[in-house]
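Inputs:
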Amino acid sequence: MRAEHRNARPYEERHVKGTFALRRPVRRIARYALLVGMAVVVAFPIYITVVNALLPSAQIGARPPILFPTHPQWGSFRAAFSEAHLGIYLRNSAIVTIGITAAQLITSVLAAYAFVFLRFPARRVIFMVCIATLMVPLEATILPNYRTIEMLGWYNTFPALIVPFVGSGIGIFLFRQAFLGLPRDLRDAATLDGYGHLRFLTRVVLPLNRPVTAAFGIYAFLTAWNQYLWPLLVTQTNSVRTVQIGLRQLSISNFNQLDVVFAGTVLGALPIFVLLFVFQRQLVRGLTAGALKG
Amino acid sequence: MGARHRARGAHARQRPQSRPLRKAGAAYLFVLPALVAFGVFVFYPLVKTAYLGFFTSPPAPNLPSHYVGLTQYRAVLSSSDFLDSLWRTVQFVLYTVPAGIVLGIGLAMLANQRLAGIRIFRTIYSSTVATSAAVAAVIFFTLLNPQVGLLSYWLGRKGGSGVLQSSSLALPAVSVVTIWQNIGFTFILMSAALQSVPDDLLEAARVDGASSWLRFRSVTIPLLSPMIFFTTIVGVIGGFQSFGQIDILTQGGPNNHTLLLIYDLYQQAFKYDNTGYAAVLSVALFGILLLLTFMQFWFFQRRVFYAR
Amino acid sequence: MTSPPGNSTEIDPSRADFTPVTDKALAALPLERGAASSVALEGITKSYGPVTAIRDLTLEARAGEFLVLLGPSGCGKTTALRLVAGLEDPTSGTVRIGGRVVNDVDAKDRDVAMVFQSYALYPHLSVGRNIEFPLRARQVPASQRRQLVATVAESLRLEQLLDRKPAQLSGGQRQRVALARAIVRRPRAFLMDEPLSNLDAQLRVQMRAELVELHTRVDITILYVTHDQVEAMTMGQRIAILNEGVLQQLDTPEAVYGRPANAFVAGFVGSPPMNILRGRAVAEDDALWVAVPGGRVGLSPPLVRAVEDRALREVVVGLRPEALSLDPNGTIAAAVSLVELVGHEQHVALRLPGGQLVWIRMGSEAPRMRTGQDVRIAATGTVHLFDPQTGNLIEVGNE
């Protein structure tokens, strides 16, 4: 792009000549101003949340507002973690999210493998059935699902939060697409080399499909972590509530301790921020692929 | 070669002897976990929901429900309550989706410049992708609080009634929160699309003397249009499924002014035990989302077709 | 045997240091299994729904034999190979390896190795790991695995490449890795599916020689699939020719060339192909002739007897390009259509009055002919007589 600007210069000089020297820096400053302005708009809610978490509760409503914590106090985080139960919520979310992600990876990889590498009656029909689940939103199924969970005696337990989501149509679709790209000869070679399906899957297919595995893993993790409606329905006590529901509780019940509310929000959002920072590239792939389902 | 490929395609029909049968058995074991999960938690409840819509809920618990056939479907779907919440949902989508896309494209264009430190801005613009609806809602819930909220203060609403308590401003406020929460996602998608616009096309337009507005309108936007369509559909589907922010910010209030379809469904089902009514809403929501998903698939297939 | 290429224009590191595979190194492989076994298909039919890929195929590669399956694409030869490997199941018929029926034995337990046209190397594994892969599946102890890999790598000149990934190798090197992976476990039989077709022409000639050498030094059974009749002729101890799923002939290269079982084999083996001419049997000048477009072909006594015994009125004769020659007094008139100079000889395509092309082979020292020039040719070599209905060979006779 630098080079492109330089190439473009003679052309511009011919046409704008005198004003060129003047306009360049001005335009650059304007661009930066716009960039910074938008950055402030986008980042301000997050920034002020962190700031407020570090302010004593009394100063949060101060007028004029305090926009920088000169004497940050970190106690609110400890309070949010233990007294406001964020620690437990985070643990619960981790259990549920990892459980769902792992289960979806396993069931999707297995099913996709069968669709690509095995021949069996009704293969196409079964595949279509799996893909059809993409068209059924959670909202269309919550009533009976809630009853099923009650009937199983799973209300307010981790299985209630995990088991309904162990299958993933999008996962099957993505892995199938990826596996179709593998040469069929590899399967035949591995068969003759003495590898059964499971070992071929773990030793050859998965190592060759790390990108799609990572992308789908991130997508599944994000989706599971952000779930709201279902955990709201099937949890009742803090011992199984996930972070999203915990934040709801926090905002309802701790309003006299605003610093704790803000600190809790920061804690609740932190894991995903870290995750996304580490896996930026996989995230973009996961989001674009996952956006299929919305 | 040719024969072998043909052969593979046809193989599924051919099933002699014991070894192949054993192989098919293994295949069913592989697909079974997913199939069981889908059967129990997707297909069974889907049918059951439609079935529940044939029964009206009793006025008090423990009384029998009445089979009324399609009467309830007709009644609910033509009721003003349903049409109101549907219209509010459409309004919500209209507030959030176009604005979100325009903002997303704008930020993506801004961050697509080759300037020093641009990576920092990219990170900031994509940061809200890490916020869930609940996180966004809790942040804004306090910021919009009439007593201590910073935004209320700056909006000159200190002391008075809050934005979220205003019948005219509540839905726009919830929409703003939603736009903010989605901006990172939209930005990431639009940036990815923008980066795939070939530089030489824009350079060619530039050499042809096209102004920057013309370049944007006649080169960039057409090339972005697949992603714009994609984001629109995803956004509309997401709009119909928006729940967390409503639940935390307004609970459908004030005076039902933020009572979106899905929140209505939730309240009917789990607050008022009006199962039959909620079942009809579920089916309606399913129908709408199905239509949108079909549009998305149709689009996706076309795109795959063009790309390969 | 084609002679190895003299001076190559480009230097390929993989073939710069050509050393034959040493039998000593391979004999030293400390494996208990792996005596070369016979491989047999008996009355095999394989159909996919309405399509029959192989029809009642019976053939056997003897223990230690190099047997080539030859045929045009789609003739069922690859399917036959996959049936032996256990990658496909026959619709009917029996597969035997070492005399034992293996129809119900899983592919991994049949103890055969396959070299694929695509090589099918595992892209994420190094060369060493690729070679080691089948040993890991069979739970060979690590120390022994290392030793085996080292031995095989050395004998196939791969020891410098053990840490590379397949993507970093040349075609010839990949080919040798695929071979190494097959050899390392000393299977009862090697199945090779067009293993040389992805190599450039020069390398193919060299690998041909290497494979033959490997086979003569190591006791292995090789079932080799190709559509290239030159490969088949130069490598196979015997050749099985398939067409549309049916075995046409199974014999030595000499016999397949000299006594092709039918017109299909005659046309498929040999380059340029045998000229097949259809004509009427006519008695002229006190002799029996075959009247063909542009003239007539004389028949030798055995052929005359064959024609008379069968009372044939229509006759199909086949003449190899070397069985025809230019002769001002020749019995057939033709016009030069195309002249191909291939170094040591020329192939000349002549057009007969009816439009059919016939090829003749001439020494390179013969004067070049002009396209369109009118010539006369005479049958001076072996004439093959085929049944006009079935295409089967009736008799071979000399003019």
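The mean pLDDT of chain C is 86. Flag for discussion at group meeting.
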